[in-house]
Design brief:
Low-confidence stretches: 1-19, 363-374
Order of helices and strands: HEHEEHEHEHEEEHEHEHHEHEH
Shape: globular
CATH superfamily: Glycosidases
Distance between the termini: 6 Å
Strand content: 15-25%
Largest sheet: 8 strands, parallel, barrel
CATH topology: TIM Barrel
Radius of gyration: 21 Å
Helix content: 40-55%
Number of strands: 12
Mean pLDDT: 91
Number of helices: 11
CATH architecture: Alpha-Beta Barrel
Number of domains: 1
Length: 374
Amino acid sequence: MRITALILTLCLGAAPSFAEFMIGADLSGLALLEERGARYFDDGKEQDALAIFKAHGYNTIRLRLFLEADGKWGAVNDIKYTVKLAQRVKQHGFKLLLDLHYSDTWADPGHQSKPKAWEELPFALLKKEVFTYTRSVIYTFKKYDCMPDYVQIGNEITPGMLWPDGQLEWKEREDSKQWEQFTDLLKAGIRGVREIDPKGDTKIVIHIDRGVNPAVTDWFFTHLNEHRVPYDIIGLSYYPWMHGKFQGLETNLEQLGRKFKKDVIIAETAYPYRTIRKKKHELDFPETPEGQRDFLKALTEKTKATPNGHGIGIFYWYPEALPVKDHNTWLGGATALFDSEGHSLPAIGTLAETARSFHSSTDSLDMKKEQRMD
């Protein structure tokens, strides 16, 4: 019976293995911080930060991209900057998730401004520009040997993108036009990727910020299904001091794993290893290096437990955030995976260690089930 079960697993396909689980980091600020003097150490030895992450089991790096990056709050990630960093990422053997903001600056739930060059375009031309720009970006990355393995169309786009044309509002009586225009923009971006990658090897990620809100998540992705948006992976943000406790996230992952039949990643997360002042929600773990480690262990276990094997990855946001000269580092670097002197913290290896442990324990349970079947 055990042999039969093994054959069925091989034929039908199993849940994603540890090797396939994305142990990710968003290192978009790395080159800027290095330029300003940041140095990184592991076991007391100075090393390239990418080599440190590789040694601790990371397999995928996320990089953001702006159009004409305006430079505000570290928004330096134009095509030249990002391609150069992406080449380093690939040279170190990582997969690449490219995060397209479709803006000259930060796109998030409170800001989805059009690039200056697109501000006056009528909708038909805006849609065409999204396609043309996306195609050009993917072509450029492919040309310079850093083809993305994943492309994120927009960043935290719960309220839409490219406001006001692609803006969304959650209300009882929705304007169908807003969803038509928003999903037309998404489809234009996806077509731009597929123009360069017709076989579909590069997977499409759609990312919203409401990791702990099952109602909004259901509302959003139900509409995407109704409008037949051809994406592959759902991305969620989860910052516990902003979004709340694990309960909402667990409910959301349960819903997504059963209803939408899409793979899910935590596209952004972080946790403070020292105290931060502004917290909307109380935290389950202390703001210490050990608390940071324990948070990531719990988050990995909950993501891996998503029904039907659909929890396939976690990306830690801005783990390289060191305080450096002439740069206002987010939260003073309190959520980095390095201390203020650049030395790696205990949590840096937790994602990979927990994913590996979870996979091993799942294999053990599967073996016990097979033995009971004998």
